[in-house]
């Protein structure tokens, strides 16, 4: 039975990785993989069905804690975007010096992506680039750096990146500690490529077109008219405050983070409905959370559901723990394994990789805030920058700027890898000094 | 603390009911209510009542086995927090099962709809007479929901009446009757409704017997409102020309295929469950996966942008996600009340003060219009033991009826109602004014029928 399940998992994984040539949506492949794995498990071991149901319920509970967290976060970000709240930040960037601009853009991306998800951050920043850097060749380098900064910025914050969030929700890492230990490595991961480009980057930003550029379109995916809606500042403030309050909520109440996220969403929702009392229902709809919910990416929520269910099946059948034992005997050192996982995450989605690692290593052996969890958060979060298809941010930027896979491989991959290893070394050198590792 | 949470719960309910005058979306109120209830529950100091309860001791026993020697080092507060989070995680699992089931079913129906698949059914219903149509719709719903679950049935039926009844005012009455018929139809078969299934799995009722004694009361429960509306319902179905004139030329291909597959999937979900003993949401998701692939493969001639509309990804963007989150909020809130043993205590309080089992169970049915019927039935199953009340005892059958049909009295009282509310934007207050009384009529008529039959037996 195990061979069959593994085969199905591998086929499913291939279908997901080859989504574009095969032309089957990866969410469909993921859902089917998850359902088929559990079905086979349940049919073959029919006599222990009670135990299997319990395992499944436990997995579902963990998975939905992640999914509702994501849905809440996506809606909040979408809502800020609908009010064009990010403009308040991006409108302040006016410098015309390429090198200076590169620093500003990278730093803003780094900070934003620690608060928001990497995907939104890179979309917001790339739409800004289009206005500030008309020169296409130059812009591609900026876009590449945005991918690196967004991924690096997400890795060290419990709310910044799906994989770090998963580890946080699962209890493998704690909020304060992950920030303490990963902030420096993440910064190094971004700084190394940035400094390198300082010396080698040549060229001009290009001439700004005077008028029409400034007001062209809203940011991000909300395709609204340019009409200004009141409350951009309020929504940005409330949204960011809501997102930041999630870790605080967890610390105070000890309840799972998705509840904190839902609370923040509820507050923003009410605010979004009350903020424009003069508008009528239909006009108001795009600017309320109900409208924002119609624009969030539900298929990717189902993708996570499917792939996490599949990984859960492998975990329940103890395939993962045996695989971990196998890796331990062949590769020996955890650090090497995790470094490889990071590099692998540039080829395949990092969510299942992290889910699998969480299943491979038990919390009894590796307690909360153990080195391997933090290092995993770093590697899975930043390794994806090495290839343009390696992260959600990369894929989005690729779509928006028509970046060629090969171009990125030639010009950015090496830099990204440099940053990745530099950050990794910094982590491995510094973690003993950041306490809490008993 | 218990009182504070109950007050929050009631306030939340009021905000949901008064959605329109307050101008606050009911989903926001529901989410906030759910989160606040759990937050208060977690930060409160535990009551003695809870610490002495069977549930808490049971939890401690399991924890002791799990933790081994570490167990004794934990303080009471830590234990209490562990209890709260473990309860929450159990609730989340069962809530997520319902939500993903709902999401899957709604997407499948939406996908069939995008391919105009329902045309093949609605084209066969030729009647222009509102009353005849109402009878047809109700009976079809009734029997469909006895095989499928109430949720799927009502989603499918709502999609059908959208095609048949362009007149919005009229459609709302049909929507209300679909809720009543779906709940009534679910009560008399072991697989038709969650609570009946619970009693069946728990061994409180047996298949043949429940069908035999429950069929008539369930029919009455639907018929009473149906007859009443047959006399009072006025108005037109509205012009259906928009749908009639659509020729096959305007349509994208594959409507029949998608309809057949969609219905096939919905029908095979119970089969999947019986065969694998896995929860039904997995079957629904598997079915969605298959339809998703098919929907992407059958339109090779369309370009990406046009095709998007006809794929599951496009269907998902049209599904009403707020009603999924609404359900999440409501069920979380009710879950908190359940874990605090409020519901349990209330049911026991009812039992002590009212005395007569029949009155207690009737009250439980009415209560299930306010809170989810699953915890209520679970509490009742815990309250009465099988030793005193053997299988197929009157109280079990009557409980199956009351918990199954009582939820129709309010629109948010049943899963079917919530789905219909999301799809047709039925207002809480409108439902209270126009449908609740008829639903209650049906509820009591069916109950009287059952009690009468029982006294003759």
Report on the structure:
The complex is a heterodimer of chains A (438) and B (457). Chain A has 438 residues and is an all-alpha fold. In chain A, 72% of the residues lie in helices and 0% in strands. Chain A has 22 helices and no strands. Chain B contains 24 helices and no strands. At the A-B interface, helix 3, helix 4, helix 11, helix 12 and helix 14 of A face helix 3, helix 6, helix 14, helix 15 and helix 17 of B.
Give the number of helices of chain A: 22
Structural class of chain B: mainly alpha
Rg of chain B over CA atoms, rounded to whole Å, is 23 Å
Instruction: Identify the quaternary structure here.
Output: heterodimer
Q: Uncertain runs of chain A with pLDDT below 50, 5 residues or more?
A: 211-225
Q: Hey, roughly how much beta strand do the residues of chain B contain?
A: under 5%
> How many strands, which pairing sense, and closed or not: the largest β-sheet of chain A?
none
Mean pLDDT of chain A: 86
Q: What is the approximate shape of chain B?
A: globular
* Biggest chain-to-chain interface with counts: A-B, 60 and 58 residues
Terminus-to-terminus distance of chain A: 40 Å
Count of DSSP strands of chain A: 0
Q: Classify the helix fraction of chain B into a percent range.
A: over 70%
In N-to-C order, the SSE pattern of chain A is HHHHHHHHHHHHHHHHHHHHHH
Q: What does the overall shape of chain A look like? A: globular
Helix content of chain A: over 70%
Calculate the terminal CA-CA distance of chain B, rounded to whole Å.
47 Å
Count of helix runs of chain B: 24
Secondary-structure content class of chain A = mainly alpha
The amount of beta strand of chain A, in percent, is under 5%
Rg of chain A is 22 Å
């Amino acid at each position: 039975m195990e061979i069959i399940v593994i085969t199905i998992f591998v086929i499913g994984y291939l279908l997901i990785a080859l989504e574009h040539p095969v032309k089957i949506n990866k969410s469909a492949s993921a859902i089917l993989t998850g359902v088929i794995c559990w079905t086979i498990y349940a049919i073959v071991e029919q006599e222990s069905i009670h135990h299997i149901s319990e395992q499944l319920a436990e997995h579902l509970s963990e998975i939905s804690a992640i999914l509702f967290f994501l849905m809440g976060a996506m809606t909040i970000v979408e809502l800020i975007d609908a009010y064009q709240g990010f403009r308040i930040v991006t409108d302040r960037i006016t410098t015309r010096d390429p090198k200076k601009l590169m620093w500003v853009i990278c730093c803003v991306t780094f900070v934003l992506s620690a608060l928001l998800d990497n995907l939104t951050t890179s979309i917001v920043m790339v739409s800004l680039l289009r206005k500030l850097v008309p020169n296409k060749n130059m812009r591609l380098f900026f876009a590449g750096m945005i991918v690196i900064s967004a991924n690096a910025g997400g890795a060290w914050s419990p709310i910044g990146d799906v994989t770090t969030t998963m580890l946080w929700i699962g209890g493998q890492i704690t909020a304060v500690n992950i920030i303490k230990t990963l902030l420096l490595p993440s910064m190094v991961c971004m700084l190394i490529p940035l400094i390198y480009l300082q010396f080698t980057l040549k060229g001009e930003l290009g001439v700004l077109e005077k008028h029409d550029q400034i007001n062209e379109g809203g940011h991000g995916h909300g395709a609204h008219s340019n009409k200004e809606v009141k409350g951009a500042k309020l929504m940005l403030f409330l949204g960011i405050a809501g997102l930041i309050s999630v870790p605080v909520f967890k610390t105070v109440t000890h309840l799972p983070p998705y509840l904190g996220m839902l609370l923040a969403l509820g507050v923003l929702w009410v605010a979004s409905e009350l903020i424009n009392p003069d508008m009528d229902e239909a006009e108001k709809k795009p600017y309320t959370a109900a409208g924002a919910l119609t624009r969030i990416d539900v298929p990717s929520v189902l993708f996570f559901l499917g792939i996490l269910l599949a990984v859960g099946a492998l975990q329940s059948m103890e395939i993962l723990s045996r695989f971990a034992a196998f890796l331990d005997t062949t590769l020996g050192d955890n650090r090497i394994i995790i470094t490889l996982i990071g590099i692998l995450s540039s080829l395949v989605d990092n969510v299942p990789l992290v889910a699998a690692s969480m299943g491979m290593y038990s919390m009894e052996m590796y307690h909360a805030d153990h080195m391997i969890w933090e290092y995993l958060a770093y590697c899975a979060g930043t390794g994806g920058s090495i290839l343009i298809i390696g992260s959600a941010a990369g894929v989005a930027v690729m779509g928006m700027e028509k970046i060629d896979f090969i171009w990125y491989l030639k010009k950015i991959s090496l830099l990204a890898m440099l940053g990745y290893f530099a950050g990794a070394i910094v982590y491995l050198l510094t973690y003993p000094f950041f306490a809490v590792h008993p | 603390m218990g009182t504070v949470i109950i007050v929050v719960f009631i306030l939340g309910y009021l905000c949901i009911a008064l959605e329109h005058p307050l101008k606050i979306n009911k989903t926001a109120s529901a989410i906030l209510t759910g989160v606040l209830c759990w937050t208060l529950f977690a930060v409160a100091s535990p009551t003695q009542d809870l610490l002495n309860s069977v549930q808490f001791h049971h939890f401690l026993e399991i924890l002791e086995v799990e933790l081994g020697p570490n167990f004794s080092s934990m303080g009471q507060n830590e234990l209490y927090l562990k209890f709260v989070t473990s309860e929450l995680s159990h609730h989340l699992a069962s809530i997520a099962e319902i939500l993903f089931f709902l999401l899957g079913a709604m997407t499948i129906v939406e996908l069939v709809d995008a391919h105009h698949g329902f045309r093949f059914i609605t084209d066969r219903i030729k009647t222009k007479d509102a009353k005849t149509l109402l009878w047809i719709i109700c009976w079809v719903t009734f029997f469909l929901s006895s095989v499928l679950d109430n949720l799927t049935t009502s989603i499918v039926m709502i999609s059908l009446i959208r095609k048949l009844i362009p007149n919005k005012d009229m459609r709302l009455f049909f929507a209300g009757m679909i809720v009543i018929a779906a709940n009534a139809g679910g009560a008399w078969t072991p697989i038709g409704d969650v609570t009946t299934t619970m009693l069946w799995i728990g061994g409180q009722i047996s298949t043949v017997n429940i069908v035999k004694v429950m069929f008539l009361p369930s029919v009455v429960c639907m018929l009473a409102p149906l007859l009443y509306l047959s006399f009072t319902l006025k108005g037109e179905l509205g012009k259906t020309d928009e749908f009639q004139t659509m020729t096959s030329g305007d349509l994208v291909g594959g409507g029949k295929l998608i309809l057949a597959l969609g219905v096939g999937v919905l029908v095979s979900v119970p089969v999947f469950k019986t065969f694998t003993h896995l929860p039904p949401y997995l079957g629904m998701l598997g079915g969605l996966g298959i339809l998703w692939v098919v929907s992407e493969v059958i339109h090779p001639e369309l370009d990406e942008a046009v095709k998007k509309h006809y794929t599951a990804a496009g269907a998902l963007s049209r599904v009403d996600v707020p009603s999924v989150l609404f359900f999440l909020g409501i069920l979380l809130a009710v879950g908190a009340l359940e874990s605090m043993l409020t519901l349990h205590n209330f049911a026991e309080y009812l039992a002590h003060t009212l005395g007569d089992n029949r009155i207690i169970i009737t009250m439980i049915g009415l209560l299930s219009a306010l809170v989810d019927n699953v915890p209520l039935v679970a509490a009742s199953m815990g309250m009465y033991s099988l030793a005193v009340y053997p299988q197929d005892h009157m109280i079990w059958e009557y409980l199956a009826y009351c918990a199954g049909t009582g939820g129709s009295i309010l629109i948010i009282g049943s899963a079917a109602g919530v789905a219909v509310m999301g799809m047709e934007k039925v207002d809480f207050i409108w439902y209270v004014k126009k449908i609740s009384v008829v639903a209650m009529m049906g509820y009591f008529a069916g109950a009287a029928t059952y009690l009468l039959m029982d006294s003759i037996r």
